[in-house]
Amino acid sequence: MADLDVVVVGAGFAGIYAVHALRSAGLTVRAFEAGSGIGGTWFWNCYPGARCDVESKDYSYSFSPELEQEWSWSERYPAQPEVLRYLNHVADRFGLWPDIQLNTRVTAAIWDGEASQWTVRTDDGAERTARFCVMAAGCLSAYQVPAFRGLESFRGPWYHTSRWPREGVDFTGLQVGLVGTGSTGIQVAPEIAEVAQHLYVFQRTANFAVPNRNAPVDPNVERALKAGYRQYREQARASMLGVPVEGTGRPALAEPAAELQRTYMERWQAGGGMPFLGAYTDVLVDRAANDTVAEFIRDRIRETVRDPAVAELLCPTTYPVGAKRLCQSDDYFAMYNRPNVTLVDVRSDPIAEVTPEGLRTADGFYALDALVFATGFDAMTGALARIDIRGADGLPLTEKWAAGPRAYLGVATAGFPNMFIVTGPGSPSVLSNMVVSIEQHVEWIRDCVEYAVSHGYSQVEATSEAEKAWGEHVIEVAYSTLFPMADSWYVGANIPGKPRVFSPYIGGVGTYRARCDEVASAGYEGFVLTVSLADCRRLAVSVSVNPQAQQVLDGRAEAGVPPTWEQTPEEARAGFAPVREMIGPGPDVASVRDIVIPGTAGGIPARVYSPVANPPGTVVYYHGGGWVLGSVDDWDACVRALAVASGCDVVSVDYRLAPEHVFPAATDDAYDALVWVAAEMAGDRPLAVAGDSAGGNLAAVSALRARDSGGPALALQVLIYPVTDHDLDRESYRKYDGREFILNKGDMAWFWDHYAPDPAARSNPYASPLRATDLSGLPPAFVLTAEHDPLRDEGYAYADRLRAAKVPVEHRHYGSQIHGFFTLVNVIDDADKAAAESGAAIRAAMEG
Ligand SMILES: Cc1cc2nc3c(=O)[nH]c(=O)nc-3n(C[C@H](O)[C@H](O)[C@H](O)COP(=O)(O)OP(=O)(O)OC[C@H]3O[C@@H](n4cnc5c(N)ncnc54)[C@H](O)[C@@H]3O)c2cc1C
What we know:
The chain is an alpha/beta fold and 848 residues long. Helices cover 36% and strands 17% of the residues. It binds flavin-adenine dinucleotide. Flavin-adenine dinucleotide binds at residues 9-15, 32-35, 40-41, 43, 45, 50, 52-54, 59, 105-106, 136-138, 140-141, 184, 383, 387, 422-423, 433-434, 438.
């Protein structure tokens, strides 16, 4: 069975929403993000001047009416830090952090057709399997540094705007060279010019730019917007570009010249690119109509830039306006009036090489202290090409797309079942307000996955025929417009050797959405949905409980055992007697003796199991029972099994129980016992901690405390379905809310109420170790989880947090087991298997 339902690659706008949407649909999800923070574009592009060119009211999620009412944008076009703050707020608000693993790059995704699952490898050496893979790796995330001869010899620092140092860069008094004058170059240039001694802008292609007219958001305007936000969002969804733009509805070529100028001037004064391009119906389809806009912008450049020669160089003439991304800036052109800015035309005088002192063109030399590349991205496909993605029969995606990307609806590609691409090639993506397109894709993908799962399908795959027909449609629509007339990154022209294919779908966001909805309503027309034989077997196992475990459940039901939360602690403790009887004796151990460990709060009873004369190490074991129930006697059989399997001395600790002794009594005893065993028993031999359920919690906490207070060094922490957090709102809790699977949500609430009656104490990392801000430096972990267990998800979450903190983790998931099965040796065969696996992990850690 796959570890997860869905792996999401990337945690930008798309990945963040994918985690929320898929998780809300009841699926288990994990997002892997290469960066050390979420936000994607808005995390990486922290260069000065970085800013949206779609208005904040449009460039924001619409999926939550509460979110959109709560959040207030400060500016019409928010700067990078504000967008990043917004995305972090979203992750906080919807509790997404446990399912996002930062600092982890996905290096490979390999399809296993037999098992109907993806094996996803990450750069920390870990491997996860997932039924579905959602690529949210970004259209503009694989940044591109030009291969200039001699760059490595340059003495000064150089920067790419998409990998800007987070601490900032001080250009004061420096001679700075800027290569690239697209959207980013236009944003960063005025900021550098403000402080640099001199800025040289190396321009290959002049770009059209219109003003933003950026300003603080007027609270009255905000109030009015929020009163009708739902309706406004609907308009955005049905629009051409993902932003409701009011056009004249008329062709420019039919407009009297004076009226045309008036319209353009009004929109120029109002600011923004989309209203400008959307003013007339023929601007993006008729070159003569387009020329009217182009000439208007060129006139504004000539008006602004004092030196006529510089102004002419800044006037784009080689492509229609809009065919490359229309840039926006309030101060770019005026910047050229500064005495410390020089425009270098590298089309007529190309860059020859970078030297240690600066940059040499064919005809000149520019001494530079620092270089900035605003040279963009390997757009649309670059991030995917950097992952080793292999579909059916091991076909690499890069091979399939060697002649250009092909994807049905831009969301799925034939030969790569159960893989979806958010805003992939063939969807409106970069030609739209991307947040609208991202939301539409994520919701469509969620619905498709839900459909497949609920109808019992294990594979969803686009057909080659549907993909081909859609590709032809995308090209047909593109060539009915002026878009293909530019050498833009939309066609891959900025990447040497990249096949030139117009990737985005220009038919309009609203039209595209309607087509996607039709496909879904027709039962996913153009897709083949199948159930593999292997998956039939797998599904049968994963939905059913292991037969021996089921017998245990049936026995409890027949005996009328009430749920723990309906009992008093004494009654619940007494309930262990029949369980012990059912289990019977554990395996023989060479020597077993009872001891009392001197603890700071008094003697702590413990039992020492010594299976061999010269064991490779010592394990301190904490039994489960929700800190309220259980004893070394109750856990005798399974601890014997662990001692035999590991070949180590195991010290089973009878810590103080709640409610008589509330938090932190149990963890104090657990830690005191560990410190004593380290000092008095372990000698030079390695030491490990282990425990199940609440005992797994004590083991994890003891490891934390040892790290925090410079306590005993540990070779391993064995966490068997551990309690790691007091949040009972996880999916695995919801699944077992009111259902009797040994442990359910009500039981767990009862345990917490007894153990930590003060709710504030529950967030203490020594009660909920998942809440520790830093898990680095902890010993390697062996984590075991069971499928039919409310603790399943927090076990996963802890394993993931440990991995993110670079702690080596071995994780075993028992796909048909119930909570507590580890203790049921002699009753459930998997208990012996789990003891053997845990024992082997302990032995390996002790010996290695
Ligand atoms: C400077 C700039 C300004 C922009 N302004 C606008 C705008 O105003 N309006 C607009 O609509 N769009 C704008 N865009 C486009 C912007 O990219 C999208 O709007 C949006 O942020 C994309 O979100 P995403 O989640 O799809 O991709 P991204 O934000 O690019 O996130 C993708 C994430 O995936 C991660 N990733 C990639 N590969 C891997 C891997 N193998 N393993 C793990 N993680 C991986 C990356 O680290 C990245 O964090 C702008 C882009 C840039 C660069």
